[in-house]
Design brief:
143 residues, alpha/beta, Rossmann fold, seven-stranded mixed β-sheet, 3 helices
């Protein structure tokens, strides 16, 4: 587990860009944090680091955005508006847990018990200053 302190949205994007170097096709990354904590900024950086094509934005209303990348696709999922397990089941998210994709999931709480055995958990918290963020990244691997 590693914890980082960023002091601006650009720093958070930069951390995401650096983190992307750890990812390989098939990886899943969950992002947890309050509204405005920088989850989407971190995703922008990851997409930059993975050389994804297109304007990266929050899929709050579309739920899933896909971006072409040299290895396949980066999939950005936002589950903020999902209220029930039935709604979640209709999205078919598990189909993205495949070596053709790198999957970035905001608000993953609804996926308890559905995540792959190995994934990265990124937690973003507000820091002392207005733009300061405390970001903890850990690799989760169940036996």
């Amino acid at each position: 587990m590693n914890t980082y302190l960023t002091r601006s949205p650009q720093d958070t994007i930069g951390l995401g860009t650096s983190f992307a170097a750890r990812l390989v096709p098939g990886d899943v990354v969950t992002l947890t944090g309050n509204l405005g904590s920088g989850k989407t900024q971190f995703v922008v950086g990851v997409c930059k680091g993975l050389h994804a094509v297109g304007h990266v934005s929050s899929p709050t209303f579309t739920l899933i955005n896909e971006y072409d990348a040299p290895f396949g696709k980066v999939v950005h999922i936002d589950l903020y508006r999902i209220a029930t397990p039935a709604e979640l089941a209709g999205l078919g998210i598990e189909e993205y847990f495949d070596p053709l994709y790198i999957c970035l999931i905001e608000w993953p709480e609804m996926l308890t018990g559905r995540l792959p055995a190995r994934y990265f958990d990124v937690r973003l918290e507000f820091g002392a200053g207005t733009d300061e963020r405390r970001i903890t990244i850990r690799e989760v691997a169940s036996a």
